[in-house]
Design brief:
The complex is a heterodimer of chains A (91) and B (261). Chain A has 91 residues and is mainly alpha-helical. Helix content of chain A is 63%, strand content 0%. Chain A is elongated, with a radius of gyration of 31 Å. Chain B has two domains: 59 residues, Orthogonal Bundle (Helix Hairpins); 186 residues, Up-down Bundle (Four Helix Bundle (Hemerythrin (Met), subunit A)). Chain B has seven helices and no strands. The chains are: A mainly alpha (91), B mainly alpha (261). Chain A: Pfam families: COX7a.
Chain lengths: 91, 261
């Protein structure tokens, strides 16, 4: 009876998911070594090529977007002014 | 190479505050363009650059903490204070919407019929989907606590399981609320009832999505062995935020769904 109870307890403690067995290796020590290298590269670029690409894309989109926005906004403002300047003919 | 003689973190210069500010400008002017000129380009650009900024900023925080070891005990203490202050500010944010609700519902005007819910509004039955939503969030509060204890006891598999359950429950809540919104007999433009209902529950729903995203990031970090049984502040911050979201819902349920019907 007690043996059955103990067995039940073991089943309850066993995990259901096997997802973790998809062999996630602990790469933290490698990353620690990479990011602690004394090479003057700023943190936001220290991860490699992907960092630089992402950084460049973000900068281009934000600064370019600001320029585009200012242009688009100004263009729209002028357009609306032009429309407002010419009265529509009533039919 | 110079070494500091203190335990604090002197953060290195970073471009993300600038891109964050620019993305905020793009988002706000994008909203104006959308509302008035029917163009969504700027808004989409703003959302994209905002997402890129957040991803890279918090990626760098992980690098500083987990990979470079900058998150010493005093630094962690500061991060804790920071998260607590942030959540407090969110409490005040929601307090405003609850104020608005009680202001209108405690003294309903003659235009509404002198009673609450106002004339013409059929409120949702609080014992149907809203009650299910309440149980979903409460259960998620239990599962996240289970995940935390598993983490502290070095039980990797159970932590992953429990955190996954929490995230799935959060997703379930979001789907249920979305279907409620779709099926609702009243809209946001149905007077003050509609306004208070959808603004309060809408912002709450947004916070559930934000919280679920935060938890998902923690899930990925746990898979990548970032957390130790003694040091896992990112997870604790996510858990605090999640409990906050749960508590806001309880207030919403009792005030708007239950008392307000």
């Amino acid at each position: 009876m007690l043996r059955n109870l103990l067995a039940l307890r073991q089943i309850g403690q066993r995990t259901i998911s096997t997802a973790s067995r998809r062999h996630f290796k602990n790469k933290v020590p490698e990353k620690q070594k990479l990011f602690q290298e004394d090479d003057e590269i700023p943190l936001y670029l220290k991860g490699g090529v992907a960092d630089a690409l992402l950084y460049r894309a973000t900068m281009i989109l934000t600064v370019g977007g600001k320029a585009f926005g200012m242009f688009e906004g100004t263009a729209y403002a002028i357009y609306e002014l032009a429309v407002a300047s010419f009265p529509k003919k009533q039919e | 190479m110079t070494h500091q003689s203190h335990a604090y973190h002197m953060v290195k210069p970073s471009p993300w505050p600038l891109t964050g500010a620019l993305s905020a400008l793009l988002m706000t002017s994008g909203l104006a363009m959308w509302f008035h000129f029917h163009s969504m380009t700027l808004l989409m650009l703003g959302l994209l650059t905002n997402t890129l900024t957040m991803y890279q900023w918090w990626r760098d925080v992980t690098r500083e903490g987990t990979y470079q070891g900058h998150h010493t005990p005093p630094v962690q203490k500061g991060l804790r204070y920071g998260m607590i202050l942030f959540i407090t500010s969110e409490v005040f944010f929601f307090a405003g919407f609850f104020w608005a609700f009680y202001h209108s519902s405690l003294a309903p005007t003659p235009q509404l019929g002198g009673h609450w819910p106002p004339t013409g509004i059929t409120p949702l039955n609080p014992l149907e989907v809203p009650l299910l939503n309440t149980s979903v969030l409460l259960a998620s509060g239990v599962s996240i606590t289970w995940a935390h204890h598993s983490l502290m006891e070095n039980n990797r598999n159970q932590m992953i399981q429990a955190l996954l359950i929490t995230i799935l429950l959060g997703l379930y809540f979001t789907l249920l609320q979305a279907s409620e919104y779709f099926e609702s007999p009243f809209t946001i433009s149905d007077g003050i009832y509609g306004s208070t209902f959808f603004v309060a529950t809408g912002f709450h729903g947004l916070h559930v999505i934000i919280g679920s995203t935060f938890l998902t990031i923690c899930f990925i970090r746990q898979l990548m062995f970032h957390f130790t049984s003694k040091h896992h502040f990112g997870f604790e911050a996510a858990a605090w935020y999640w409990h906050f979201v749960d508590v806001v819902w309880l207030f919403l349920y009792v005030s708007i769904y239950w008392w307000g019907s």
